[in-house]
Specification:
The chain is an alpha/beta fold and about 300 residues long. Among the domains are: about 50 residues, no CATH class; about 120 residues, no CATH class. The chain contains eleven helices and 13 strands. Strands 1, 2, 3, 4, 5, 6, 8, 10, 11, 12 and 13 form an eleven-stranded mixed sheet that branches. It has a two-stranded parallel ribbon with strand order 7-9. The chain starts with about 30 loop residues before the first helix and ends with a helix.
C-alpha cells in the first residue's frame, strides 16, 4: 500500500461475540442505570481494566482497548499495540504486542503512554482520532503526515515530549497552522522537536513568535531542524539567551549561504564563551572543534 494513500474512517459497533458463549444476564445489587453509567465513565484506565476483567457487561457497553503504546507498522496498514510498559515488553520479546488495523477495529482506543507514527497513510492521525476514547500519552512522535489541528490538540493534550518530522498541520479550511500556535496549544509540553520541509512557510518569523508565548516557562528542551536562513540572527540570539536553562538546538539546512554561516559563527562563539550547557547551533561545514565543544557541554 502506498504510504501517501488516504484510507477511509469507518465507524461500526456491534454486539460482542465471545469465544466461550454469550454473556448471562446480571442481577445487580444496584440499579442497572447506575452500573451502565459506571461502565461508560470509568475514572481511570486501571479501573476500567478491572471492570472488564470482572464482568463482560462493562466491555459490551463500552468496548475500549487500553494500550500503553501504539506504533504504526512498516506495512502501512497495521499498527502494533501493547498494554505493557516498554521494559515489560522488551522482557517478553514483544510477544505481548498485538497487530491491529486501526481503520477496521470496532472498539475505541485508550492510549496511555506513547504514540509513534512513522508509517501509515497520510491521514493516519485522523483515522486514529476518530477511534480514540481517551488520549493520555506522554510521548508523541509523528513523521510526514497531514494532521488536522483539532486532532493535534487531542493528541498533545497531555504529551510532555512532542517530536514532529516534516508534517503538514492545517485548520479545517486547509490553512497552514504556524508553529507558535502548535506550541501554544500544547500547554503541557516540556520537550519539543520539529523538523521542517525546505519549502515550509511556517518557519518565517517563528522564533520571534515563539518568544511571545506565555506557556514556555517550564520548557526543558527545544530543537528545530532543517532551518532556512530566513530566520533572523538577532531573534535566534535572543531565543538562546531567554532559554538559558533549557536544551536548545538549532540545525540548519544545507542551502544556507556563506554570509549566513559567518553570522551563525558569531553566535556559536557567544555560546562557547558564555559556557552555558545544552546550547547547540549546527550546520554543514562548520568548525569541527567548536562543534565538539558545544556537544561536550550537552547533558540530557
Amino acid at each position: 500500500m502506498d504510504s501517501s494513500a488516504v484510507v477511509s474512517t469507518p465507524v461500526f459497533y456491534g454486539k460482542c461475540v465471545w469465544p466461550d458463549g454469550p454473556t448471562k444476564k446480571q442481577n445487580w445489587p444496584f440499579k442497572e442505570s447506575l452500573i451502565y453509567y459506571i461502565s461508560k465513565n470509568p475514572s481511570s484506565a486501571k479501573v476500567y481494566q478491572k471492570m472488564i476483567q470482572s464482568c463482560k457487561y462493562s466491555f459490551e457497553k463500552n468496548p475500549v482497548l487500553v494500550v500503553s503504546r501504539l506504533r504504526a507498522c512498516k506495512d502501512n496498514v497495521n499498527s502494533r499495540i501493547c498494554s505493557n510498559t516498554f521494559d515489560e515488553c522488551k522482557k517478553n520479546k514483544r510477544k505481548c504486542c498485538v497487530k491491529i488495523d486501526i481503520a477496521k477495529v470496532s472498539s475505541k482506543i485508550w492510549i496511555m503512554n506513547k504514540l509513534n507514527v512513522k508509517y501509515g497513510p497520510k491521514n493516519f492521525t485522523s483515522v486514529l482520532c476518530s477511534k480514540l476514547y481517551r488520549c493520555e500519552i506522554n510521548h508523541l512522535q509523528i513523521w510526514d503526515k497531514v494532521i488536522m489541528f483539532d486532532d493535534l490538540q487531542l493528541l498533545t493534550s497531555s504529551a510532555k515530549e512532542i517530536m514532529f518530522w516534516r508534517n503538514s498541520i492545517t485548520y479545517n479550511d486547509g490553512k497552514l497552522v504556524m508553529l507558535d500556535k502548535i506550541i501554544e496549544s500544547s500547554s503541557n509540553g516540556t520537550k519539543f522537536y520539529f523538523e521542517f520541509d525546505n519549502d515550509d512557510s511556517t518557519v518565517n518569523s517563528l522564533v520571534k513568535n515563539i518568544m511571545k508565548l506565555k506557556n514556555l516557562e517550564k520548557i526543558e528542551g527545544f530543537n528545530l531542524a532543517n532551518l532556512p536562513e530566513s530566520l533572523s540572527i538577532e531573534d535566534i540570539s535572543a531565543f538562546f539567551k531567554k532559554y538559558k536553562h533549557a536544551i536548545v538546538a538549532f540545525f540548519f539546512n544545507e542551502n544556507i549561504s556563506v554570509e549566513y554561516k559567518n553570522q551563525l559563527d558569531f553566535l556559536i562563539d557567544e555560546i562557547i564563551e558564555s559556557e552555558f550547557p545544552n546550547h547547540i547551533i549546527q550546520y554543514d561545514g562548520q568548525d569541527i572543534e567548536k562543534c565538539k565543544i558545544m556537544y561536550s557541554r550537552f547533558v540530557v
